[in-house]
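Cont'd.
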Amino acid sequence: MIGEQYLHLPGPTPVPERVVRAMSKPMVNHRGPEFKRVITRATEEIKQIYHTQEHVLIYTASGTGAMEAAVVNFISPGDKVLAVSIGVFGDRFARIAEIFGAQVEKMPFPMGEPADPEAIIARVKEDIDGEIKAILITHNETSTGVYNDIKKIKAGIKDHPALFIVDAVSSLAALDLRMDEWGLDVVVSGAQKAFMIPPGLSFLAFNEKAYKVQQENPSPSFYWDVDKGLKSLEKGQTPYTPAVSLFQGLDEALQMMKEEGLENILQRHKDYRDMVRDAVRAMGLRLLARDDNASPAVTAVIGPDGIEADRIRKFMLENFNIVLAGGQQSLANVIFRIGHLGYVRQLDLLGVLAALEITLDRLGYPLEKGIGLTRAQDYINRVI
Amino acid sequence: MIGEQYLHLPGPTPVPERVVRAMSKPMVNHRGPEFKRVITRATEEIKQIYHTQEHVLIYTASGTGAMEAAVVNFISPGDKVLAVSIGVFGDRFARIAEIFGAQVEKMPFPMGEPADPEAIIARVKEDIDGEIKAILITHNETSTGVYNDIKKIKAGIKDHPALFIVDAVSSLAALDLRMDEWGLDVVVSGAQKAFMIPPGLSFLAFNEKAYKVQQENPSPSFYWDVDKGLKSLEKGQTPYTPAVSLFQGLDEALQMMKEEGLENILQRHKDYRDMVRDAVRAMGLRLLARDDNASPAVTAVIGPDGIEADRIRKFMLENFNIVLAGGQQSLANVIFRIGHLGYVRQLDLLGVLAALEITLDRLGYPLEKGIGLTRAQDYINRVI
């Protein structure tokens, strides 16, 4: 098939040409002045996106690495941890805490639904002795395309001393997140999502409260040790050899994000979500997430009766070179997921919707051709 | 200054244009068939370079990450570990083992010298009860440009049950290493050295004996867990999102290495070492390493009396755009290090030697101009 793939995963996302060129620059000394400029500038820009004046470290690792870093630095073995889960990544965070010795109390919610803020607030309020040392929560659950209202949850429990630790791997810069204002203590994120660079870098933001907890933590850590990271960052370095080319790409991507403006980026993600949801609904398909907590990063669509979701993905890959994500665990073959975060163009997304209509038709689903597509067109017409 | 830097660090090294182009390919699904082809092929090629039929996993992390992986998978808390150190990276490996709870007995040797095989063999032979569970040793010590004769050491202790764990981060593909034949149990390496790609990927090779030890290890692990890695590799995947663009670069670099041939690559590294050593000696400077254990990856040169090593580096950076490495710890400002591993051209290296002569002259060191350079020329003339 001619031409590049339409990569519509919830990460990795397509990479802008400017970022590719930045990553293609000659290698530099990771202990020299060029790298110092890159890491210093990138760290400052990332803080703007986190809305924080606290610490941000960049790891050479995938997002899961930064999740592990959050656990080994800020949760001590034996600590009671409340782990809220609305899907695969919530389960993963709980599992990491368990593996590293935390006493994990899981608060699961059904896949496809957000966590109920009132239930969490009520549970935390019961803990009058402050036994819960940390609360783990996913901001945007990539596996279902649902986001949690972490602002509301944190506001409801704000006097409780537990560290509030957020997995924002797929949400940062796609969903509004205000670390300092909302009182988030630790926030993990990744660069292959809304930051538009290839995977390999992840971020760990933490405040002084978390840092004090870390100072008392007996868990062994070396690669993830935030003390080593902070000390090196003062010199414009990382403790161990960083993924230099990805840092160069990140620096360029952050410049692009600055040019576009964070508000515009967040609005773009919302617009894409609404356009996809409108169009898919018009096609008569059901969406997994409700409107009020639907992710601006990825939309999970339930396959129509009698047509397996994976058949739709396969047809779209083979005939249009479109890569969509499937469902995981109980949602395997039940949903397909359309990623619309990061470096995605409006008309590419419209192309995906057009291809979906053709696919549904060819797989025997009754559909008035253009019904979703014209909704998407109308949508674009309104927002441009 | 016009033109690209001459990057002569012991990693990261310059990156070939073919690798840059491979890394610039459009992003692909890390759970899809393209990535499966890349990781499967790359893993097989890396095994050839390790001379192993055992397991090889590729981590998205720097070399230190894979060192931590070796420790948390194969050393249990409380295990007695013999840690041989001939410099900064030997110290680092010992430190990681200590942090993760091993009872570390250090066997340090003076910086600039190799470990004495007889001393190590004698120490291990004393351990008749098999209390030592693991031996940590650096293959090529980047901080001093000295390598250890791990083949001889392992051969001398071969009946001892301890796992023999080698840090080959800067040696693999620059120095002969035969994992299976020599009986090495665990070997760590990195891709930003002789593999010619930007930093961000590291390798962990281990045999069945090590894997059995890992199965009994109570240390918590998640990101580094080799079980998860092996399970994902069967599907042509990694447990967590990998640094896709670096994998694409690695795949291309491995093709280049196959075309050049491993024997030729090893010979090239030896030739460069001998050329640099001959020329530097002819200039009247002293070398830190003796001939018999001098690293083919990096050469440490002792600054002449009265001229600080860092002044030489500074002059060469400012006037020739040449990046050399400095000395670390007790060798700071005493030595400078010329990296000659990975993607380095013969005549670029000759240029570095020419610049060194001019630098020495300008800094007041008496020198017959061309004396080292003509030795390098003669050397090239002999080997081409």
